[in-house]
Write a structure and sequence with these properties.
By secondary structure, this protein is an alpha/beta fold. It has 5 helices and 5 strands. It has a 5-stranded mixed β-sheet, sandwiched between helices.
Length: 189
Amino acid sequence: MNIEPGSRVKLWMMDEARFGLHTEMRRLWARKGRRPVVSRQIKYEWDYLYGSVDIVSGQAHFCQIPAVNQQWDRTYLQDLADTDTGAVHVVIRDQAGFHLRDGDGRLPANIRIVDLPPYSPELNPCEQLWDLIKDEIGNRVFETIEALREAMLPALRRWWSDAEAVLRLIGRSWLLDQANASRPTRESY
């Protein structure tokens, strides 16, 4: 991953999650001795939420996308790159098969990719974010994907508008320490 010395760099943790018309069943409070009743829908129509959080500034970026594949991955990364065209965006994410890899010619020019180790979702704070969003839309039935998207907007807006909340969610000092660590050069061996 080549980044020119002196470049402005934005460091993002990125992930995607599947949401759909299949009701997200979540725990809820009820009066003692009462059994809560929740409407449930089992409908296999899906939508995907791509999201990134900047581990330095606390900025959040989301896109609701109809599918996961390399074309949509590129579309999301282009949208992320367009948020600040003068910066190099380093995106740390898992190694899903539909993700473009660092050095792929289809990547936007100001995007660099760093892969997380396989089977390590606990390293990505976006995983916790998806759980919080599912809490917001849980135990509800949505007639259409558009209605689901509308219902998710207040939860997403909370993360867009509150950088401090994003930084509290990330809460991993080791992540920032590792991001700021110098990459060894051949001369330092």
